[in-house]
Structure prediction request, 320 residues.
Amino acid sequence: AGMRALHEAIAAWFERRFAVRLTPEHDILPLLGSKEGLVYSAAAVLNAGDIALIPDPYYPVYITASTSVGAEPYMLPLAEENGYLPELDKIPQDVLAKSRLLWLNYPNNPTAACANRRFFEEVVAFAQRHNLAIIHDMAYAEVYFDDFRPMSILQIPGASEVAVELHSLSKTYNMAGFRVGMAVGNAELVEAVSRLKSNIDSGMFRPVQYAAIEALQLPESWIEQRNAIYRQRRDVLVAGCNAIGMRTQTPGAGLYVWAAVPRGFTSRDFANWLFDKTGVFVTPGTNFGDAGEGYVRISLTVPEERIEAALQRMKTALAG
Ligand SMILES: Cc1ncc(COP(=O)(O)O)c(C=O)c1O
Prediction:
């Protein structure tokens, strides 16, 4: 699916950005946004009765994509003290024996955590050892700050034996409404997704494909200028949250700040209280799974002045 020129533009972008060479016809599949790729990849891997390993908190699609084909989710709690990386050695043997799929998402939504090379090396070796497929959701690949550059799991030797990675032009090029994404990596999985998908949709509108090709050729300076705006918002929001007792770390990438709720509130109670009192909306951490309790997710997708105004109202409400 997709024009040859789009496959080639994706391959060129991937090599420029990650120094990984993909074969345009086998290792790449353009998608109508990365979300459908999450569902199709899970359907390609999982059978009824299999276990899908899902880090918690999670992007909700991982659950529905897994359960809709009859698989059973097994949650891997992500804790602040572990940098929101799953503890693979805590998975019981009987669970591992039935597991077929490990979901990963770095830069992470909602925790804003990032993974380093060592983690990706461990996780690829783990998947090889236990015969697991990995779906790495990298929707936030190009929203990064300072000197940090999120890495692709495909930069790890051997990763293409086990992993498919999903990318999106939604956040990378501010093209959410265009619906363009791609699955890259393990050729067998990419082919399975392609077969499934070709029975459901009949391809992407050509003008959108031309727009995607143009976007993929934008210079890095475009990304950097855009990210400078998000960084400014991030700095205001992180400083503001910490100043009003909502402890948060400074994210290296992504569109969110993950902040601890003030003492005495659950995530949901705090989000509701704040909205009633101030009109400021933050997302309860528990919307992304039980392990999100104690946190809220705050988005960087509003202008700096609005973030400042929201922080001012939050400060007043919490002081009263
Ligand atoms: C973690 C994550 N994955 C995937 C997506 C889906 O993005 P799209 O379908 O627009 O490519 C989103 C969008 O919010 C997301 O946050």
The domain at 4-216 is CATH 3.40.640.10 (Aspartate Aminotransferase; domain 2).
